[in-house]
User: Which sequence fits this backbone?
C-alpha cells in the first residue's frame, strides 16, 4: 500500500502516529474510472487468492488452518463490521448490542431450517427480514435516546436476546440447536483444487467465498447509500442531530433506517455462521462479539468502509496469529488497542471528514449526553483564524 | 399574524422551563426576546422549531396549528433556525453545510446559494473549508446562511452575538437587518439587549419562563426598569461581561455548558 511516512496531521491538536494517507487519497480522488475499476478487480482477485497456502504460511504459521481462520473469523468480522459501520460510523449511533442481530440471523435459520425444513436461501431471506425487523423493534422506542444512554439500552438488548435463547426450550436453551443444514451445493466444478460452490464439512473455503460475495454486495449497497441523500442525512445526524432536524432531515426515520440496515447485514452474517457450524449455542453470542466488532470499526476508522474492513481484519486476525503467546495474547491485544487510541484516535484508515469531526471534539459518535455541547466545540475554531 | 405562540408551557422532566409564554410575530417584523440566563428564551425558540415538545398551549404558523408537527416538517412549512451555539456540521465544508440547509427542498437551491454567498462574501472565500475549522464569527454567518437556504418565511436566531468580538456583532446585526429588508421575518433571541433592541421593531422581556413585558423596542430602550436590568444601566455589567467573553473565545466552551445548566436549573 502506498503509505508514506510524514507528519500528516493537519489539525495539530492531537499527535498523530505519523502515517498519512493523504497522497493515496488525492490520487484516488483524481483517478479516472478505469483506474478505479482496475483497483476493484485487483482487490477482488487478491481476496479470491487469499486462502492460498503461500499466503497462509505467513498469516497462520502456527499450524492453524488459514482458510478456516478466514471463513470462521475474519470474513465474518469483516461483514459484521460493515454492518455496524453503518450504525456507528455513518449515523453516529453507539450500539453495544450488535451481536443481537447476528444472533437473530443465526437463530432464524436454526429454527426454520431444522423445524420447518426451509432451504438455506429461503432462510437467508427471512433472516435478513427478521434482523431488520429486530433493528426496527429495538430502534423505535430507544432511538429517542442519545449517546451513552442509547449505548446502555442496546447493551441490554444484546443481553436480552442471548438470555432469551438461553432460557427458551423452543431453541433448546443453553444446549443450542444442532443439525442446521449446510447450504445446498450449487455446482461441483473444481478450480485449482477448490470446489467453490460445494458446501461441505471438510473444506471451509467455499464458505469464505460465500461470505466474500456477501461482503462485496454489502460494500456496494452501503457505498451507494453513503453517497446518496441518505448518506448526507446520516452525516448530518452524526455531526449534530438537532441541527439536522432543523435542516428538515427526518432524523428519527433515518436513524431507524441505519439500525435496520446494519441489523440486516449482521443477520446475514449470522446465517452463514450457523450454516457453516451446523449448530449454534447462546454462548456464541456473547457481549465480547459486540465489543470486538465495535473495536474493529473504531480501530479501522469509523465511517470509512475500507477502514472498517481493515479494522475487522486486524481484530479478527491478530489474536489468532499470535496464539503462540497463549494467555498473554489478549493482554497484548488489549494493550495494542489502547496504544492505537492514544496515538491514532481517528483509526487506522479514517475518512477525511471524520478527522475534521474528531478535531472538533464531538468524537462523532453522537452527542454524548442530551443537552451539553461537546468540550472544546469552538476553541479550535478561533485559533485557526 | 405569521407566527403566534399562545400560552405555551414546556417541561424538562418535572421542571417547568416555560410557564405560559405568549408571543406573536407579524410578517415583515423583527421581534426580539430578551432576558437573562434561564429566562426561557432558547427553550421558546426550540419549541417553535420543534426540538422541544410543549406540554400545554399552541403554536400557530401561517394560520395553521403546528404544535404537534415534527421538527423537520416545520422547516418545509417555512420556519428556519440558526441554533444556539451555531450547530455547524464540523466535518462538512462550508458549501456542504449550506446545501444541507436546502435538504428538504425539492427544487434547486442555486438561487439561495448565490444569495447566501452575496450576503456573506466571507463564506464564498471559504467554500471548501471544513465548517469546524472556521472562526466563531464565520460559523455564525454560516449558521444564518444555512438557515436561509430553505427560504424560510420566518428566521429564528438564537444568540447570534454570542462569543463574538464587538466589531463582528455590529456586522452580524446589520446583516440581520438586511435579511429582514429583503422580506424575511426575524425572531431574535439575545442577551445583548442593547443591540437587539436597536434593530427590533418589538420586543418581549422574559423572566423565569414568563413574559414580563411586551412593547415596541424603542420604548423598552427607554424603560428605566429594562435599562437597569438588561441594558447595564449604572451597573454596566452586561457590556463588560460580553467584552470579557469575546476577548477570549476559548472561555466560551465551558461558559456555554454552564449557561445551559443554569438555564435548566434556575427555571424551576
Assistant:
Amino acid at each position: 500500500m502506498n503509505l508514506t511516512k510524514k507528519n500528516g496531521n493537519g489539525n495539530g491538536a492531537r499527535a498523530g502516529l505519523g502515517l498519512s494517507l493523504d497522497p493515496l487519497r488525492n490520487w484516488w480522488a483524481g483517478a479516472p474510472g478505469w483506474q478505479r475499476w482496475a483497483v476493484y478487480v485487483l482487490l477482488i482477485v487478491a481476496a479470491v487468492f487469499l486462502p492460498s497456502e503461500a499466503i497462509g504460511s505467513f498469516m497462520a504459521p502456527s499450524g492453524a488452518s488459514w482458510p478456516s481462520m478466514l471463513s470462521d473469523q475474519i470474513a465474518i468480522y469483516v461483514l459484521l463490521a460493515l454492518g455496524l459501520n453503518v450504525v456507528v460510523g455513518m449515523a453516529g449511533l453507539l450500539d453495544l448490542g450488535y451481536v443481537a442481530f447476528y444472533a437473530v440471523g443465526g437463530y432464524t435459520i436454526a429454527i426454520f431450517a431444522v423445524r420447518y425444513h426451509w432451504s438455506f436461501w429461503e432462510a437467508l431471506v427471512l433472516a435478513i427480514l427478521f434482523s431488520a425487523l429486530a433493528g426496527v423493534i429495538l430502534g423505535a422506542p430507544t432511538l429517542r435516546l442519545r449517546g451513552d444512554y442509547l449505548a446502555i439500552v442496546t447493551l441490554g438488548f444484546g443481553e436480552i436476546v442471548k438470555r432469551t435463547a438461553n432460557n427458551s426450550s423452543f431453541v433448546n436453551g443453553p444446549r443450542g440447536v444442532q443439525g442446521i443444514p449446510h447450504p445446498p451445493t450449487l455446482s461441483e466444478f473444481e478450480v485449482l483444487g477448490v470446489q467453490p460452490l460445494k458446501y461441505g464439512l471438510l473444506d471451509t473455503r467455499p464458505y469464505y467465498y460465500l461470505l466474500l460475495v456477501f461482503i462485496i454486495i454489502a460494500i456496494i449497497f452501503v457505498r451507494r447509500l453513503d453517497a446518496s441523500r441518505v448518506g448526507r442525512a446520516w452525516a448530518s445526524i452524526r455531526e449534530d442531530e438537532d441541527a439536522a432536524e432543523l435542516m428538515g432531515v427526518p432524523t428519527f426515520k433515518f436513524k431507524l433506517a441505519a439500525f435496520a440496515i446494519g441489523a440486516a447485514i449482521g443477520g446475514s452474517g449470522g446465517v452463514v455462521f450457523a450454516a457453516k457450524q451446523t449448530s449454534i449455542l447462546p454462548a456464541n453470542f456473547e457481549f465480547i462479539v459486540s465489543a470486538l466488532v465495535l473495536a474493529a470499526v473504531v480501530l479501522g476508522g469509523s465511517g470509512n468502509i475500507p477502514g472498517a474492513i481493515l479494522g475487522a481484519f486486524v481484530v479478527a486476525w491478530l489474536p489468532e496469529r499470535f496464539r503462540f503467546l497463549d494467555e498473554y495474547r489478549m493482554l497484548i491485544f488489549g494493550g495494542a488497542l489502547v496504544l492505537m487510541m492514544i496515538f491514532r484516535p481517528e483509526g487506522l484508515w479514517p475518512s477525511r471528514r471524520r478527522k475534521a469531526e474528531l478535531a472538533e471534539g464531538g468524537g462523532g459518535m453522537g452527542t454524548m449526553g442530551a443537552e451539553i455541547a461537546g468540550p472544546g466545540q469552538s476553541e479550535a475554531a478561533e485559533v485557526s483564524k | 399574524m405569521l407566527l403566534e405562540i399562545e400560552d405555551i408551557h414546556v417541561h424538562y422532566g418535572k421542571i417547568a422551563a416555560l410557564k405560559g409564554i405568549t408571543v406573536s410575530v407579524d410578517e415583515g417584523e423583527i421581534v426580539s426576546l430578551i432576558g437573562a440566563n434561564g429566562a426561557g428564551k432558547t427553550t421558546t425558540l426550540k419549541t417553535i422549531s420543534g426540538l422541544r415538545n410543549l406540554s400545554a398551549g399552541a403554536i400557530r404558523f401561517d394560520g395553521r396549528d403546528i404544535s404537534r408537527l415534527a421538527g423537520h416538517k416545520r422547516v418545509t412549512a417555512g420556519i428556519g433556525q440558526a441554533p444556539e451555539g451555531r450547530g455547524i456540521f464540523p466535518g462538512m465544508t462550508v458549501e456542504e453545510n449550506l446545501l444541507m440547509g436546502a435538504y428538504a427542498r425539492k427544487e434547486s437551491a442555486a438561487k439561495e446559494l448565490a444569495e447566501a454567498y452575496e450576503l456573506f462574501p466571507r463564506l464564498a472565500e471559504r467554500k471548501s473549508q471544513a465548517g469546524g475549522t472556521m472562526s466563531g464569527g464565520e460559523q455564525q454567518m454560516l449558521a444564518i446562511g444555512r438557515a436561509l437556504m430553505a427560504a424560510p418565511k420566518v428566521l429564528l436566531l438564537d444568540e447570534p452575538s454570542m462569543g463574538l468580538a464587538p466589531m463582528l456583532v455590529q456586522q452580524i446585526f446589520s446583516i440581520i437587518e438586511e435579511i429582514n429588508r429583503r422580506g424575511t421575518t426575524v425572531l431574535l433571541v439575545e442577551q445583548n439587549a442593547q443591540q437587539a433592541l436597536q434593530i427590533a421593531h418589538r420586543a418581549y422581556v422574559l423572566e423565569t419562563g414568563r413574559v414580563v413585558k411586551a412593547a415596541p423596542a424603542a420604548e423598552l430602550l427607554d424603560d428605566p426598569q429594562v435599562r437597569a436590568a438588561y441594558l447595564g444601566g449604572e451597573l454596566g455589567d452586561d457590556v463588560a461581561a460580553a467584552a470579557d467573553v469575546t476577548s477570549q473565545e476559548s472561555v466560551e466552551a465551558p461558559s456555554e455548558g454552564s449557561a445551559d445548566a443554569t438555564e435548566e436549573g434556575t427555571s424551576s
User: Anything to note?
Assistant: Chain B touches chain A at residues 49-51, 70-73, 75-76, 80-81, 83, 85-92, 100-101, 103-105, 130, 132-136, 139, 146-147, 150, 163, 249-250, 252-253, 256-257, 260-261, 264 (CB under 8 Å).
